[in-house]
Design brief:
Elements (H helix, E strand, L loop, with lengths): L4 H12 L11 E2 L2 E6 L2 E7 L8 E6 L2 E8 L18 E8 L10 E5 L2 E7 L8 E5 L4 E5 L1
Parallel strand pairs: 1-6
Antiparallel strand pairs: 2-3, 3-8, 4-5, 5-6, 7-8, 9-10
Length: about 140
């Protein structure tokens, strides 16, 4: 099996400067994307190789905390690891959610190494039409 010596240097640099594996007291960051799709806010975390049982989601006072732990996938006396490039350890991310999101109805799914959170926009934050009455006619404006 051939290896790229520069990739080894990159991994060594990450380990030396603290971007490697994380611990429960000092977790490493996990990559994410966030966007709004219609009436919901979607957050996608890349967590390949993480068992769904090793993912924790907590929310307290509009702060969403995601923690996950990647453990070695192949263990045993007859296992000899050839290449191990994915960092092991604990990963964490905190999101500060605004008051315009309905944190009571968050939905989470995990498929193919991707954790997806769907957070609906609160009803009070959605745009609505308000009817204006006058002596001659009725108009509607968007609030």
């Amino acid at each position: 099996m051939r290896t790229d010596p520069f990739r080894e240097l990159d991994r060594l640099t990450q380990q030396v400067f603290g971007q490697g594996s994380g611990t429960w007291s000092r977790p490493a960051a996990m990559p994410m994307d966030a966007y709004r799709a219609g009436d919901e806010f979607v957050v996608v975390f890349d967590l390949p190789g993480v068992n769904p049982d090793a993912i924790e989601l907590d929310i307290e006072r509009n702060v969403l905390t995601v923690k996950a732990e990647r453990r070695p996938s192949a263990t045993g006396d007859d296992v000899e690891m050839q290449v191990a490039e994915r960092p092991l350890g604990v990963f964490s991310r905190q999101l500060f959610l605004g008051d315009t999101l309905d944190t009571d109805r968050i939905k989470a799914s995990y498929e193919s190494g991707v954790l997806t959170l769907r957070i609906p926009v609160a009803e009070a934050a959605k745009p609505r039409k308000i009817a204006i009455e006058s002596g001659e006619s009725r108009k509607e404006i968007t609030a």
